[in-house]
Amino acid sequence: MPKTSYTVELNSEQIEHLQTLLEERGWELSVAPYAVFRAKKEKTNVTAYESGKTVVQGKGTDEFIEFILEPEILHDIVVFPDESENTPEIITPHGGIDESGKGDFFGPLVIAGVSVTAETGEKLRALGVCDSKKITSDKKIAQLAVEIKKCVGEENIAVVYFKMETYNRLYTQFGNLNRLLAWGHATVIEKLLEKNPSVPRMLSDQFADPSLIQRALMERGRQIIMEQRTKAESDIAVAAASILARDRFVQCIAALEEQTGCTLPKGAGANVKAVAAEIVRNSGADGLRRCCKNHFKTFEEVLNGC
Question: Residue 229: enclosing H or E segment and its boundaries?
């Protein structure tokens, strides 16, 4: 049954990051007794208390956990007891797609696609391939990325990443992150099918309107079965794609750190703002613009503060 209530403990930095995200995404924020903030959007309410206790309520609880809390605040999976999760899916030939970096102020958006067969899927499972959010070590991510490439071959991999200038231009063009994501997913699917036209279907995590990806697909992509579902990272092909996307994102962050001379934290919390302000002091607004997602509210806040 869909969940209508969930409680989690967040630290002050996570609460600040969550507040910023919800403000950016059009949630209605208000005050409440003993709370840092209360937010409401459609059928979902979120209250973050000064103690750290954060309560999600309403019919949109599942979606809030899946699309905001897990990937952008906790960077981990919220696990609910479910016996079905202990039963591995039967692997048939298909492709999976996932992205990394969409909730991070610094760094690019990376989207990866991987196609598997029954044989390579089982090999990936044996290697320990799983959703990248469950892996906290960048070194482990890099090791698994190498193993994934060896296992499935370059003809079954497609990775697209948007450097900051390109990302910011595309975001202005699309005017909406979900439309940009859908276009990016469709681009990766097309590249994957160009390498391996025999892929019968593609699976991705569901975000926003499921028809966005379908509409963005081009000639090759329209000829396959396109599936979207929540928690798609449990699928071995999607999990492999999530690792490749995360690995490329980490590489890009390392290059930006060398360029800026700063360690670039993930997310969009207070530590991110402090580093962003340092970049502005050292390299000006253009220096910050070249290494971050300009549509984040953090960008304007830092520039105004400096």
Answer: strand 225-229
